[in-house]
Structures
1.
Amino acid sequence: MNAIEVNKVRKVYNQRDVALDGVSFTIKEGESVVILGHNGSGKSTLFRTLTGFEEPTEGSVTLLGREVDPGKRRHLRETRKKVGMVFQAFGLVDNVSVFQNVLFGALGQVKFAPATYSLFASEALRTRAMECLDRVGLAHLSERRADRLSGGQKQRIAIARMLMQDPEIILADEPIASLDPKAGREVMDLLADIAAERNITLLMILHQIPIAKKYADRFIALKNGEVFADNNVSVIDEDFETALFGSEGPKDPPADEKPGSMEQEAKSL
């Protein structure tokens, strides 16, 4: 079964700026796939379309058999229940505890938001939150305020929060771009291990080629809003990198393409 289906997606801004031009691909359940591309290639627009923050001008996106329809907010919430998102900007609430941040991951599963507050959460939710914290190796920090954590710890807490959803798909947008190399490897190891042990489909946007080759089975490369290549990561070599990125190679995304704004939108839904 396909976990993700993108069918002839086209996204046009201001009736003339084409960000995506007929993008199509499918990703099977349990696959680990990375999206590659130069700045302006359409990666961020594709991610926003997959997560329902952008509505395609043409075409469709289906996650777990449900079409992503930004125009129907209740339908979109239902679609997202089994889709975990990991952002570069972490998106934690700094002035509350680690435990409370993880409990917030259950917001889509309760009728009333206060049911995820630590004072009112059920024993079942509290137990699950501690299990998720234990899985990322940070149960001992459950009572610490989020703003007292390192960057790597914050991303691991964000992953624990995401695990509260019991996701079937993980969408990760530059999950290690804000981290030092050691913390980045730890986060990637964690994501890869969780996806493998639970057979979760993992789709990531990355710009580090060595990381992509180590942690993904397959890549989809975008160029000028179109699918430039879709293949096993083993075919990536210097010639391919030059063809995709140019002689200067991949660069960090500029500030206006980073996913912090998406995280803010996610909180409002």
Note: Confidence is low (pLDDT under 50) at residues 252-269.
2.
Amino acid sequence: MSVSVTYFDTIERNYSEVSITDEGIDTKTFLEATEGLVKLFDLLESKAFVFVKSDMSGNIKKIRERYLINTIENSTLESLVINEKVEKKRKATEGLLWLKRGLEFTAAALRHSKNNKDIELKVSFGNAYEATLKKYHGIFVVPVFTLAMGSVPPRATFFKNLGEDEIKIEEQYEIWLQSLEKIVARLVEFYIQGGHDKGF
């Protein structure tokens, strides 16, 4: 009997494997897990999400470049941002801020979809966009995202693309999503408490 391979089996790092300590969120494993999340947008089968993927990948690159300058001092996302602030730099801090916002949007859309199995995916993504990202976007960006939300495939197509074993998918999806939500909540609190989101 062949074992059904799911999307969650193919990613390099699961959010559940990202270390979170008193010092913060491990930078290396967070970046690896988020690269896996970017690939999730391929399962939505819409060219409109090319912009979303490009934006997230660009922000991942900014954070990784800062991390590689000193992997020990920048071992957590929090220390990376604080070290940049000391140097009066903002590149990675801004990249992480926008990535955080993108993850908030994605987590909200996927949670709504998982908890409301009778609602189509485009509704979940549309509602999540209105509640999270839209307020940060200008008049030229909103139409791009609105187009992407409207082109989301039926939820049945998306979940089929995640894998064939529905029971396995259900379990993996929940673990992955809960872990993502935990990370997002911690980042949101960190940016608010530290005032690192000012000016963006």
Note: DSSP finds nine helices and two strands in the chain.
3.
Amino acid sequence: MTIKGIIFDMDGLMFNTELLGYEKMIEVTKDFNYEMPTYILDKTIGVNKKTAINIFKKYLGKNFPAEEILIKKRLIVNDYLEKNGVPVKLGLIELLNYLDEEKIKKVVATSSYRKVAENVLIRANVYNRFDDIICGDEIKESKPSPDIFLKALEKLNLSADEVIVLEDSRMGILAAHRAKIKSIMIPDILPADEETKKLYFKECKSLLDVIHLLKTFN
């Protein structure tokens, strides 16, 4: 099997921003005099803003101020990133360098909206390392729908059997499976459950391990 393209998730996969947002969401919710159970927050990992808001209102009531809370959380996260920089995951730069050497195409497919995604990628100095970016506000249905990965295939101009998806979330792995693209999971906040383990091609501990795995393909 020859790999010609890689589809990267962003938060939790390339950067340790998923956990940061997770923790800040719990804090901000308390500021609004609500409690955010982790089992509800877990359901929003890997989905876009619109889907997350629907999940919050489903479990916490239609009057839950999800939009306001998410805006405040985003401001706090942005302030943190501005002061501390973007926490890059182990092996990201090495993996990007390897893909450049092998002339393997790479795109970002993130549930984050474009304004947010571009801000993080630019701050991390990797924005120009990718051939394209597909964001959560540019597709009809959020992960676990395959929409974002099917769009990524179009951008890469490759077939599903020439591409691998790198994901940290269960929703992302399910979306890749529905797009009929092989996936590698590098778990972040939540480990793979038994159902997810049936869907992905391999599991790695870090992006460094992905390099070794790709070498066995090509």
Note: DSSP finds ten helices and six strands in the chain.
4.
Amino acid sequence: MKKLKNEKELVKKAIALGTAYGTKRGVVEFEATDSAHEKLEYIYRLLVHDKVIQPLQEDKISQKAIMHRLAIWASKQ
């Protein structure tokens, strides 16, 4: 897994885009106390469920892998 040049900014963009996507679908309403990791995992699972992104292998799922996959998704938006 090659680290992206501006992955931190892309992860922030992915959270914003994912939140907007989930709100538009009417399935997500994040609280102020929700952590970034919880948001990232929920957004990842929602996008996989909707077949927007390809899922990771079950044994490869980690916070770092989810962040990387969502950063790639955000870079293409």
Note: The chain has a mean pLDDT of 92.
